[in-house]
Each structure stands twice: as structure tokens, then as C-alpha cells.
Predict the structure.
Amino acid sequence: MTERNVISIVDQRDSLRPPLPLTASGAAATAGTPLLDRLARPLRDLRISVTDRCNFRCSYCMPKEVFDRDYKFLPHSDLLSFEEMTRMARLFAAQGVRKIRLTGGEPLLRKNLELLIGMLAELRTPDGQALDLTLTTNGSVLARKARALKDAGLRRVTVSLDAMDDAIFRRMNDVDFPVADVLGGIAAAHEAGLGPIKVNMVVKRGTNDHEIVPMARHFRDTLGGAVSLRFIEYMDVGATNGWRMDEVLPSDEVRRRIAAEFPLVPVGADAPGETAERWAYADGRGEVGFISSVTKAFCGDCNRARLSTEGQLYLCLFGERGYDLRSLLRGVRPADGQPFSDADIAASIDLIWRGRSDRYSQLRSLLPPAEAGAKRRVEMSYIGG
Ligand code: SF4
């Protein structure tokens, strides 16, 4: 088990108490005043990793050499239970979260995930809105699960697919899994009404970049253009994928290749904090998006927090340390031996977010390569993309 950098909360409990009386901060959030971090970014989006396991071994996320058959995944007792995740989600919603994305590893490997989705679908924001429940999956079991996920209350899915060609797809995910089955999952999700569906393709120069146009062509003509394809620049996430800058194909180049075949026009962002730069096909046959964390950092309005499957709160995909919220869920207050209350946990979330100043992608190019390379960033498979 890789030793992780964890910031314990319990023993810093007193120093974590917010300057404002607890109710004030709670009241501020409910009164619609967003909880802002040090860069004035509100807390809007919570990603919950429900498992650290996956049935793929994508080289940019969970390389087989590291995540091999001897890799020690987390024991079930370490994982947050559905009740604990729901309690956390409820407290984050009270602090301004509007959207929950379930991730992993591969979230659909977590047994009875529909139960969790049903519990989250009951939650409401302070102004009575249901949460926007989404999920990112590799699509491997989506065909079987789509209907049940929708019935449980899931709204949308994002499916990862890195090539149309089976051989290249295998090179990217390092398991013997056919593209056709992922496409079957996407069709089933569409059938079940889990849309608008997004498909994410990580582009690695020299490995799958010649699949850019075939992917665009396929999804332009599929499901009436109901699927929005997004191209993600290959990122230096974690500390195990052997990332090199010369394997990054900048989004501008990806867009040029598509536009040479299918003219594109720019489209505005859907919502603040949206990671994709959106472009529509000039002939009206759908749209594509570009997620350019390496060449066009979007930290300026990053409103995302990430909860690992064992309850560590990370404030950035490239974070090195997580805040141990599970100790508040399962521990007792040193002062009186009582379990931590909702107000206690809300105060911790409040203070942690107010102290946030993460903006790794903006700083990446300023860091000396040796320093950037030495960072012990958390693995993406542990906190979700
Ligand atoms: S690098 Fe970190 S702060 Fe910047 S957009 Fe990504 S997750 Fe947000």
C-alpha cells in the first residue's frame, strides 16, 4: 500500500475551529453567499471516488507495471460506506455544492451503487434543488447497469473511450476489452435517458492521436449527435504514469485536425468552472470539447473538491495531501468524547475550503522540471479524474 500524505484533522481540531461562530458560516452558505476559497472560487462540485479498483489499466492513470496483481487495494472496511458518503454529500450541499460526480477507479465495480445513487438523489440544496448527479465510467459494464442507474436517480454519464480501433484501444487501457462493448454501453445509456452523454478521449501523442478524426467522425454520426466528444490533453497526474511533455498533443492541434475535416465554430461555456472549451460543428451535427489542463490551465474558476474512497478530501487533482474527513465521521471529539456533529464537520469543510489556493496547472510550467517531477501527487485512480 503506497504511503499517502494525510493531513489529520482530529489533532488539529482546535486550530481548525472557524473564526466565525459556526452557525454564521452555515447561515452564510444557506443565505446564498458562496463559500469562497483564497482565489475567490466557490465550492460547487464534489467528486466522490467510490472505489480505488478498476478493471482497466489505462497507462495514463493506472499503469499495469504499478497496479499489478500484487498491488494492495484498500480493504472494504477502509472505504466510506454509502451512509457516510451521503452524510458528507449532504454537508457539502449545505456549503454550496450543486453537482456530485461519482468516480473511482471504476465506480460501477462498487456493489449496489444504485443504492448510493438513490440516497444522494434524496438530497436537496439549501434552496430546495436536487443535486446534479453524474458519473464517470469506462463503460465496461454500463450496458447492463444503465437502466438501473437512471431509475435510481442518476442524471448523466461521462464515458471514457480513447480510440475506435480495438488494437489502439487495448494499447491505451492495457486490457483485452473491445470498443464495441463500450459503444454498447453508450447506446444503452442513451436509451435509458442518461444524457446529454459525454465521451472523454485522452490524447497521447504517438499512441492514439491518429484516432482523433475517426472518433469525431463516429460520434458526429451516432445517436443523432447526442454525444459530445471531449478531447483531454495527456496530464502529469499522480506519480506513476511516466508523463512526458513531448507526448502531450496540445488541444489547438487536436482542434485543427478536426476542423480540417469538419469545420467548427466556438460555443460559450455552459456553467462557471466548466473544464471543456466547447466547439460546435458548423453544419449543426453536434459539438466537441477540449480539456487543456497542460496548455490552457483553467484553475481560475476551478470549483471542484474531491473525496477519496476512504474519506480524504483533496482540493486539486494534482494535490499531494488530503484532509482526513473520515476521522470526523468515525472518531470522537477529544474534548468530550462525543461523536463529531454535522456542525463540527461543516466547520471543517468551511475552513479547509477557505484556506484553499491550489492551482497546479497554472503553476506547472513555472516549476523546474526536477521539482515538478519530484512531487508526490495523489493517484488519479484514487480520487477520480
Ligand atoms: S489543476 Fe487543480 S486547481 Fe487547477 S483546475 Fe485542475 S484541479 Fe483545479
In short: The chain has 14 helices and 13 strands. The CA atoms of residues 57 and 68 lie 9 Å apart. The first strand starts at residue 6 and ends at 7. The first helix runs from residue 13 to 16.
